[in-house]
Specification:
Among the domains are: 239 residues, no CATH class; 95 residues, Golgi alpha-mannosidase II (Immunoglobulin-like); 102 residues, no CATH class. The protein is 32% helix and 20% strand. It is built from 17 helices and 27 strands. A hairpin with a 2-residue loop joins strand 17 and strand 18. It is globular and about 70 Å long. The two termini are 48 Å apart.
Length: 656
């Protein structure tokens, strides 16, 4: 949902058949479906604790709990799924964004469905995880009202009968459904409400009837730039959730059909198969589109088992890695443009941070490979926290790892008078109200995937303070994860079982951990700490990860520092300017200018000493070169998630 984008069954009982043009060579041909390695735990069974719960509650008091009051014209006044469904007669709509007028605006008439449904998705999950009764009551009313918009044939969406499923131009048909149904499925997980389940199932069946596999082209378009259309590829998120709830493989088969049709259309999108397998084609597209397209590709590969899709996925990951900054955030401000990662010049969008994190979670579920857990934590603890204001309910729509100014343009750039994304806001209405809803989703998506399960084991995948309460293998189990991780590296588990029960508890060992101390015997296997024992009543287990601050390369001429999963940054003192005050819960928009413009440099030496304060284990000091005074100075380093303006990478100093 971006202005800049201008630049650049038949129901499920029917067997899936895809008419591939090259029967024996098609990457979209099924060979041998691959089962997922892990199963996600039900959303309602994980409860955040400690700083995770505090942040969730802060969001509910701010933009996540009150975005409808901050931008009522986009969420309340535009009943886009009901009274205000789009017809051929609708030529304009209040989208919030500040831009030049023109006929092009018609292609973005779907925008408010994204603002609304992504916000509701994050709001629903946040309220469930926080067990907030007031917000849950509000959400129940919303669920009833949105289900009342469903037509007798099962249609849930934003188009009236004269438009729906009849496009050869830009549209938000599948995108509106994906964003809406993800939230409804979260509510169903929490409530088990059969009415909600039946509504979702009928809505998905309605899609398959109207876009029958092998006989339709949902991604056909007469112009290659089609943001809403291609966002709709992540309808596969809904399909995979439906499969996990039902075991019906037809949902997975439809994922393969959608990715196959998407890949064979004339679209300006990076995630298409032919582009991915060509190493000479860099990632150039709109970042959030590119990084979310990793999930549908992975869904198609696991649905088909086709090794050609595995090759495409591996090459996709390699290309993404080249765009990735020290914080884990991928280039995309808003387009990638073929650029490699640079901590100062390649900004990233909050939407991209969420979508890439969600894609890595998807791969973690599918593969059980612990490296994806490391990638998820790197993004969430650094990029996501570092673009969220440390003390106010506001985020940066765009940010860079090295953040020297936050005054609208990138690091002080004033060449684009309409650029306001590099600053803090609880809405970012003048750009697009898309990143703030995703800022409300990212925490819940992390929390709900902290615990997963295998056939024979419970698995602590994403670490942090939480409590798991689940019914597993006929036994009621509670596991408290007591810690302030990632701000400490010791985790105390309290495992309580209703009856004596033998099973392995698996805990992901982070790649940065140099050693592990455990209060109970364990083995290391495939990157997991495995404690296999008989659990009786309440058993306590303490795991401690041993590490030291590490200096890492950000390129041939730059370095940065990490401590455990945290990227460290030198905080830059700044002058705050409040540019707008909202009546809603003291929300405000803010800009920041540096008190000093010094950009420190690194003098190569055999042993770069980093001193950690004893009374504040998250504050460090190291020596850097000040090019303004031409002297060496001791500078402070803190987790980048605690900073506003900052320097993360340090360029090598030339003595000449």
């Amino acid at each position: 949902m971006k202005l800049i984008a201008l630049q650049c069954v038949m129901v499920l009982s029917v067997l899936f058949v895809y008419d591939a043009r090259a029967q024996h060579k098609s990457p979209f041909e099924k060979t041998n479906r691959i089962p997922e390695a892990l199963s996600p735990i039900n959303l309602s069974q994980v409860m955040p604790k400690g700083w995770l719960k505090t942040q969730l509650e802060e969001n509910l008091r701010g933009f996540t709990g009150h975005l409808d009051s901050l931008v009522p014209e986009l969420i309340i006044q535009d009943d886009i799924y009901g009274r205000d469904r789009l017809t051929r007669q609708v030529k304009s709509k209040d989208l919030g964004a500040v831009s030049e007028a023109g006929d092009w605006q018609v292609q973005f008439l779907w925008w408010n469905c994204e603002t609304q449904s992504n916000w509701w998705d994050g709001y629903i999950r946040s309220a469930i995880l926080a067990r907030d009764t007031m917000h849950l009551i509000r959400i129940k009313g919303y669920i009833q009202s949105i289900l009342a918009t469903q037509d007798t044939d099962g249609y849930l969406g934003i188009y009236d009968k004269d438009l729906r499923y009849k496009f050869d131009t830009e549209n938000g048909e599948l995108w509106a459904k994906a964003t809406l149904l993800r939230g409804l499925l979260a509510w169903y997980e929490y409530t088990g409400d059969a009415i909600v389940w039946n509504a979702v199932k009928r809505a998905v069946d309605n899609v398959i009837v109207n876009y029958p596999p092998g006989q339709s082209h949902p991604f056909h378009v007469n112009k290659p730039d089609a943001g809403g259309l291609t966002h709709g590829l992540v309808f596969t998120d809904v399909l995979e959730s439906m499969y996990r709830l039902t075991g019906n493989h037809a949902y997975l088969d439809y994922c393969l059909f959608l990715y196959g049709d998407f890949s064979q259309q004339a679209l300006n999108e990076d995630g298409q198969y032919d582009k991915l397998i060509n190493p000479g084609v860099p990632l150039i597209g709109h970042g959030v589109h590119t990084y979310e397209q990793l999930r549908p590709l992975a869904a198609a590969y696991y649905a088909s088992g086709n090794v050609q899709l595995k090759t495409a996925m591996d090459k996709f990951l390699q290309k993404i890695e080249s765009t990735t900054n020290p914080s884990g955030a991928p280039a995309g401000d808003e387009f990638i443009g073929g650029r490699k990662a640079d901590a100062t010049t390649t900004g990233y969008e909050y939407c991209s941070v969420h979508e890439l994190m969600d894609s890595y979670i998807s791969l973690l579920v599918k593969t059980g490979n612990v490296s994806y857990g490391d990638k998820v934590e790197r993004l969430f603890f650094n990029a996501a926290q570092g673009a969220r204001h440390p003390s106010e309910s506001a985020i940066c729509y765009l940010k860079t790892d090295n953040s020297y100014y936050l005054t609208g343009g990138k690091n002080g750039d004033t060449s684009d008078r309409n650029q306001t994304r590099y600053r803090y806001s609880p809405v970012h209405k003048e750009a697009a109200v898309c990143c703030v809803p995703n800022a409300g989703r990212i925490g819940p998506y992390y929390i709900q995937h902290m615990w997963m399960q295998e056939d024979s084991a419970l698995v602590a995948e994403l670490l942090g303070p939480c409590e798991l309460n689940t019914k597993w293998r006929g036994n009621t189990i509670s596991i408290k994860e007591i810690t302030e991780y990632p701000f400490e590296h010791k985790i105390r588990f309290e495992v309580s079982t209703e009856e004596r029960m033998k099973f392995p508890l698996k805990i992901r060992k982070p790649a940065w951990a140099m050693d592990v101390k455990s209060s109970l015997p364990y083995i290391l296997k495939d990157g997991y700490i495995v404690v296999d024992r008989t659990w009786n009543k309440t058993t306590k287990l303490t795991i401690e990860f041993m590490t030291e601050p590490i200096m890492r390369q950000a390129g041939q001429e730059e370095i940065y520092f990490t401590y455990g999963p945290l990227v460290l940054a030198h905080p830059i003192d700044a002058v705050e300017t409040i540019t707008r005050q909202y009546a809603v819960n003291t929300c405000k928009e803010m800009q920041y200018t540096p008190v000093s413009k010094t950009i420190y440099q690194y003098i190569p030496q055999p042993d770069q000493h980093i001193k950690k304060l004893r009374d504040n284990p998250m504050t460090f000091f190291t020596t850097m070169f000040n090019p303004d005074s031409w002297t060496s100075e001791s500078i402070e380093l803190v987790p980048m998630g605690q900073t506003i303006l900052r320097q993360v990478t340090f360029q090598k100093h030339s003595r000449e």
